[in-house]
Amino acid sequence: MCFLFTLRFWKSYQWRDLILGAVAAGLATSTKYNAALIALPALWVVFRPLSATIPLARQLVRSAVFAVIMVLAFGLTSPFCFIEFERWIAALREISAHLSGGHGAIVGRGWVVHLTSSLRYGLGLSLVVAGLVGFVWLAWKQPGKGVVVALFPVAYWAFVGSGYTVFARYILPAVPFLCLTGACAVTELSRTMTALSGRPKWSHAMSCALALLVVAPSAWSVVQFDRLLSRTDSRVLAAQWVRARFPDGANISEVGRRSTNLFFLPEGPTTPSRYKTTTLAEDSAETGEPDILVVPKSLFNPGSAIPPRAAALSASYTPLSVIVAHDPSAKGVVYDWQDEFYLPLAGFSSIWRPGPSLTLYVRPDLASKLAGAGATVSPRQP
Predict the structure, then answer these.
(1) Rounded to 10 degrees, what is the CA torsion of 52, 53, 57, 62?
(2) Residue closest to 334 by CA, chosen among 164, 116, 103, 109
(3) Is residue 245 domain-shared with residue 373, that is, in the same domain?
(4) Number of domains in the chain
């Protein structure tokens, strides 16, 4: 919305568009702090650098008005940033340190990762290339528009890519601008092709055809992602299996990351769940024997080792349920390697449901009581 009113102000130079743009910028910043960079193209247009037709005093006044209204809109919707100013600044420093230092696996600096992975697989190569070509075309043919369109995504990419915390979602604010410049590239290419062929009237049809080709990989990824997301998560299936066979509760030991663990709701506001879960760490020396041992395997973390204690238990326990979430021999599956989200950016055909594959081992004496139920293996299809 801020960018829309920025472009409107560029054409109209009316106070209404300036004020609405400033309000939108303040609300965007209140929603997500790094959106404050949207003020860069707005202030560029408001101040109109290198313009000899607009008095400098007017440029300064309108730039100051934009900044004040933006800060007011931010302050009214995030008042505690000012009421607890020192705590807010301290929190911003913590966020900055986290962005710089990395999160979990270090896969590279964001400048490279967001281009080669987040956008490459999140949008699809054709759309990313079209967007970048569109940026270059605008900068070459229409430098004024090129600067306005490029200021936010370039500044944002430079900022969010400066560290080693590279969640794919961090680059989302740049996506609309790549789509916008991608549309420019498609339109200009279609005009050029139809002009060279001597069929200028076909320009619109050519634009539609090229647009469909550009967005096809991304559209197919969306369909694949939604198809998988509609299936029941392996961790939910495992918890359902436990509740169905141990209605009175159970002691459960789990291996792996917190994100692979099963989840059981408390019985009430002050009553814990009847299903007590503990995590067996790599150096665990626990000697107790839980009712159930849960061991995950995932393409997201394929090299994870099973702690010695868990390996010993699994050797003596009975595997009664195997929930298969993916093809264990799959290649070319790309995840957001830091965000622990168990659906990939690419390689959907090797994934059968959200979550890790899980094996549930049961203590031998309890397994014999459940023998009538038999072992269960989840099918590939839900």
Answers:
(1) -110
(2) 116
(3) yes
(4) 3
Q: Do 170 and 278 have their domain in common?
A: no
pLDDT for 70-106, tens place per residue? 999 999 999 999 999 999 999 999 999 999 998 888 8
The domain boundary, picked from 230, 265, 292, lies at 230
Is there a domain that residue 157 lies in? yes
Q: How far apart, in whole angstroms, are the C-alpha atoms of residue 296 and residue 321?
A: 12
Q: Are 238 and 360 in contact (CB under 8 A)?
A: yes
Q: Is 283 helix (H, G, I), strand (E, B) or coil?
A: coil
Domain edge (last residue) among 207, 230, 253 = 230
Residue 328 belongs to a domain: yes
% residues pLDDT > 70 (the chain): 94
As a 3-state breakdown, the chain gives helix, strand, coil percent values, each rounded to 5, of 60, 10, 30
Cα–Cα separations (whole angstroms), residue 106 to 122, 299, 336, 346? 19, 17, 12, 20
290: how many CB neighbours lie within 10 A of its CB?
A: 21
For 295-315, the pLDDT digits (tens) are 999 988 877 778 888 888 899
Q: Which helix (H) or strand (E) holds 150?
A: helix 143-160
What tokens does 267 get?
A: 């019985």
Domain that holds residue 122: 105-230
Count of all residues that appear for the chain in the document: 382
Q: Which two tokens stand for residue 30?
A: 């209140």
CB 29 within 8 A of CB 173: no
CB 307 within 8 A of CB 282: yes
Domain-embedded: residue 89: no
Which whole-number Å values give the CA distances from 201 to 11, 198, 349, in the listed order?
Answer: 29, 9, 41
Judge whether residue 326 has pLDDT over 60. yes
Written as one letter, the residue type at 322 is: V
Q: Tell whether 372 and 243 lie within a shared domain.
A: yes
Q: Is residue 88 part of a domain?
A: no
- Whether 131 and 160 map to the same domain: the answer is yes
Q: Do 239 and 224 belong to one domain?
A: no
Q: Tell me: pLDDT of 382 over 50.
A: no
